[in-house]
Amino acid sequence: MNKIRSIVSAIAMSIGVVLLVGCKSLPQPEEGYETLVLAPFEANIKAKTNGYLVTHFILNNDPNLSILIDPPSGVNDFNVNDTIPAGEYEVTGYRIDAASRNRIRASGGKGKVYPLQDGKTIPLIVKNGEMTIFPITVEYELKHDKDAGRVRTHIDFHAQDSEEREELIKRALEMENADKWVLSNQY
Fold first, then answer.
1. Whose CB has fewer CB within 10 Å in the chain, the N or C terminal residue?
2. CB 73 within 8 A of CB 36
3. Secondary structure class of 15 (helix, strand, coil)
4. Residue among 172, 176, 174, 5 nearest 184 (CA)
């Protein structure tokens, strides 16, 4: 956990967004969607805006394979990722993209991928029939900057301590359809 915490603290200096919490239901396992990764986030909204940022945690250095954290599409403060194929992965970096009105975009297509601290990685094992809670929580804050006359966004990351992790597990297990999944115990 210290490895994750040190990686996250280095990432945390750079980054921003909005939260709209959805229903409290998880998808049921079905053919083609047998894996579930819940990516936790926290959001503090102090300004209104049409735009926001989303975070992608890149797996195996493949920018097309990522854990998406998009607060407006979140469920009970989690983003539900059910399209990651079963397998063993390394979280190798992250990307921040601008989004607005249910569209994700970045200038020139996708934003730049930033490596984790010192090229370190975080292991992630995704198995069929299992619900995995991602070990990093993303914090979004949106504030109106009166001096600049615009909205500023800030994104921060942190590794979960045991108390936060237990609370996330509790909240995940209370969601509808959670009983259809086996909780992964890899962290």
1. N
2. no
3. coil
4. 172
